[in-house]
């Protein structure tokens, strides 16, 4: 961080001791503030905010860091300074009363001063020293000491006295901010940067597309790393805010929690649970495809959970937005009344992109929303935006992630077939929902699908997206020969399928009846045959029995006969005789 | 502030010229300036002037009132309007013009 060759210049102070200015964002881009006990040059053209930068440095120091300050003003009388910053909530008079601040106005009027012979600026030193000692100041602002060059003619003396002044301030251990007017082709008009070489900050005010934007750049910061970009900044009722577009990191906290998208059908598509908290969601679609409705459902769901939500509308006024959402059964007004929903509507062309970003940044800081919507982020970009501007939008997206807010951006796309966005947001977002309008059979219908959703099993299905006064409803679509069927075509297809179904059912029933009847006939026949079979069997058995009884009878007869033939040879048998005589 | 701890030189009841010489310590340049001033006053304003010497090292709070930056600074408080001359007062003509004792056009330039 610190090159050894340079460090030998710093005698008594640790090389990286810094003094927090308290100016929003500035301390972040300089990794801690201005160099402590050393002078910092803040330069820029007229009206760029140099004096305010210095005064805020003093006021925040006195108020927030317990470091009293001295303001040596060469341009504006004390009363003017006090009046100028009163609107920013800086009460210079009270600070002076409480011995936290000294303001000394040094008036330099060339025509009142005659010069004769040699002189030095010991009087100035005495005044500054006296002011510093009177409040034990740790900070000092020299507001454009270069006007001395106009008031005094001995330039050589002035130069050496400036050098002596800055060294003297260093030795006194006060952290100094010196403002300087930007000169033609050089940083300051009289080359103050030659004496203040530790830290140089450039403020700039530019007009782009008839919109004024202020930018800040750390031109030089000896012995410290610093952001080298131009950072947009804003002067508003809280002072200066530098948009801290710190390096885009990927170190943000990751949430496991899932939050509802506000549309049950969409939650189902997103693994059944909705978005991840802290993720960023992109909803793209053509005009009228329902982007705002998806966004509004999301904030409504957040408010329902009691989480503050911030809605940036770049196309509709807050009332218009609320009214339009009422038409799909969403009551957003009550959330606004409860202070949960903040709708901020600005025309994209109202001011520069930087200003938008700074304001967005401030609102996020002040409101601390859990859910942020920008609708549509594409219009914020405008058509004249360059690469740098796009990068800044990406950084803003990144900032939201760091803030732990779940962000939903809508973006208008011209060609629904094209799965890209203007600003290549898609690589940065975690979930990308695409909304489509398709036209067939004389009607337009909306489709919704999830193109990607990191870290969750999400549906690959296209759903039909229905808006009605009862809200948003997703329904499956039919895939027919002509592609996806929606709306009436889907209804027709459904009816046809139902009719076909009924016909098939009826046919089936008919066949069943016929078969059942045949079966019953067969069974009857089987019964009849069975009966006949049994009769035959019975008869067969009967025949067998008769035969055996006949045989038995016959045998008995024969036996009797043979017995009767034996009688005459042996002894007579009355019985046999009688029988024999009867038979004869 | 008017009376401060300044010490008055050549006190007069109502001097036509009331002069203050601001210095910061007894530096050679301050002493030189005072000597020059004294000489010029004696030559051109004898009996009509008063000189106060204000040492800012002793009374730093007095620097603010007369808007003192450079040392040495001579301030003419009377007659009005106030005039200011900075430097060691080594150029007598410039001092006379600066104090409005001699009009700017009159000096013969040497």
Give a quick set of tags describing it.
heterodimer, A: 584 residues, alpha/beta, Rossmann fold, 9-stranded mixed sheet, 17 helices, 24% strand, B: 110 residues, alpha+beta, Glutaredoxin, 5-stranded mixed sheet, 2 helices, 22% helix, globular, disordered C terminus
Distance between the termini of chain A: 159 Å
CATH superfamily of the largest domain in chain A: P-loop containing nucleotide triphosphate hydrolases
**Biggest β-sheet strands, sense, barrel of chain B:** 5 strands, mixed
Average pLDDT confidence of chain B is: 80
What is the number of independent domains of chain B? 1
Helix content of chain B: 10-25%
What structural class do helix, strand and pairing data of chain B support? alpha+beta
Number of domains of chain A: 2
The best one-word shape of chain B is: globular
Mean of residue pLDDT of chain A?
A: 82
Q: Gyration radius of chain B, to the nearest Å?
A: 13 Å
Shape of chain A: rod-shaped
How far apart, in Å, are the first and last alpha carbons of chain B?
38 Å
């Amino acid at each position: 961080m610190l090159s050894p060759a340079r460090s030998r210049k710093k005698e008594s102070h640790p090389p990286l001791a810094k003094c927090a200015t308290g100016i929003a964002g500035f301390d972040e881009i300089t990794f801690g503030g201005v160099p402590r006990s050393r002078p910092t040059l803040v330069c820029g053209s007229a009206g760029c905010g140099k004096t305010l930068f210095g005064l805020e440095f003093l006021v925040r120091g006195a108020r927030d860091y317990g470091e009293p300050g001295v303001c040596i003003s060469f341009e504006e009388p004390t009363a003017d300074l006090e009046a100028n910053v009163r609107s920013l909530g800086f009460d210079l008079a009270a600070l002076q009363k409480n011995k936290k601040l000294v303001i000394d106005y040094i008036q330099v009027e060339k025509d009142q001063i005659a010069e004769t012979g040699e002189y030095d600026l010991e009087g100035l030193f005495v005044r500054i020293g006296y002011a510093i000692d009177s409040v034990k100041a740790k900070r000092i602002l020299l507001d454009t000491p270069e006007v001395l060059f106009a008031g005094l003619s001995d330039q050589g003396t002035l130069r050496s006295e400036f050098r002596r002044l800055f060294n003297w301030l260093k030795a006194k251990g006060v952290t100094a901010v010196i403002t300087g007017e930007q000169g033609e082709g050089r940083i300051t008009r009289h080359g103050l940067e030659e004496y203040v070489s530790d830290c140089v900050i450039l403020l700039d005010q530019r007009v782009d597309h008839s919109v004024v934007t202020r930018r800040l750049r750390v031109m030089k910061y000896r012995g410290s790393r610093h952001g080298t970009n131009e950072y947009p900044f804003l002067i508003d009722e809280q002072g200066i805010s530098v948009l801290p577009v710190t390096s885009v990191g990927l170190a943000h906290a990751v949430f496991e929690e899932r939050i509802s998208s506000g549309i049950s059908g969409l939650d189902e598509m997103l693994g059944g649970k909705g978005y991840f908290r802290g993720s960023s969601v992109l909803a793209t679609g053509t005009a009228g495809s329902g982007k705002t409705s998806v966004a509004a459902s999301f904030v409504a769901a957040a408010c329902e959970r009691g989480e503050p939500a911030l809605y940036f509308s770049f196309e509709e006024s807050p009332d218009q937005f609320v009214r339009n959402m009422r038409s799909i059964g969403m009551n957003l007004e009550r959330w606004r009344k409860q202070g949960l929903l903040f709708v901020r509507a600005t025309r994209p062309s109202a001011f520069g992109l930087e200003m938008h970003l700074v304001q967005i940044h401030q609102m996020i800081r002040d409101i601390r929303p859990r859910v942020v919507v920008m609708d549509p982020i594409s219009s914020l970009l405008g058509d004249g935006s360059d690469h740098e501007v796009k990068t800044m939008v990406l950084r803003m997206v990144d900032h939201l992630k760091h803030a732990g807010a779940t962000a939903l951006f809508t973006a208008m796309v011209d060609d629904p077939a094209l799965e890209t966005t203007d600003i290549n947001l898609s690589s940065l977002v975690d979930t990308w929902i695409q909304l489509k309008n398709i036209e067939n059979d004389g009607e337009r219908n909306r489709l919704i699908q999830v193109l990607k959703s990191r870290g969750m099993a999400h549906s690959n299905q296209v759903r039909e997206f229905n808006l009605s006064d009862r809200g948003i409803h997703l329904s499956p679509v039919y895939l027919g020969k002509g592609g996806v069927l929606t709306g009436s075509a889907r209804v027709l297809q459904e009816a046809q399928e139902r009719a076909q179904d009924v016909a098939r059912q009826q046919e089936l029933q008919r066949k069943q009846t016929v078969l059942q009847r045949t079966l019953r006939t067969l069974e009857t026949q089987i019964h009849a045959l069975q009966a006949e079979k049994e009769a035959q069997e019975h008869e067969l058995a009967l025949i067998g029995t008769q035969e055996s009884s006949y045989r038995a009878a016959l045998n008995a007869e024969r036996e009797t006969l043979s017995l009767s033939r034996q009688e005459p040879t042996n002894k007579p048998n009355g019985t046999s005789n009688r029988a024999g005589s009867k038979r004869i | 502030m008017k009376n401060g701890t300044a010490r008055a030189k050549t006190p007069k009841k109502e001097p036509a010229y009331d002069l203050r010489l601001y210095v910061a310590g007894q530096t050679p340049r301050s002493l030189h300036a005072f000597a020059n001033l004294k000489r010029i006053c004696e030559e051109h304003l004898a009996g009509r002037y008063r000189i106060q010497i204000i040492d800012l090292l002793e009374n730093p709070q007095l620097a603010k009132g007369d808007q003192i930056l450079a040392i040495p600074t001579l301030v003419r408080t009377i007659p009005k309007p106030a005039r200011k001359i900075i430097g060691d007062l080594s150029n007598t003509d410039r001092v006379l013009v600066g104090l409005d004792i001699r009009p700017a056009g009159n000096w013969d330039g040497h």
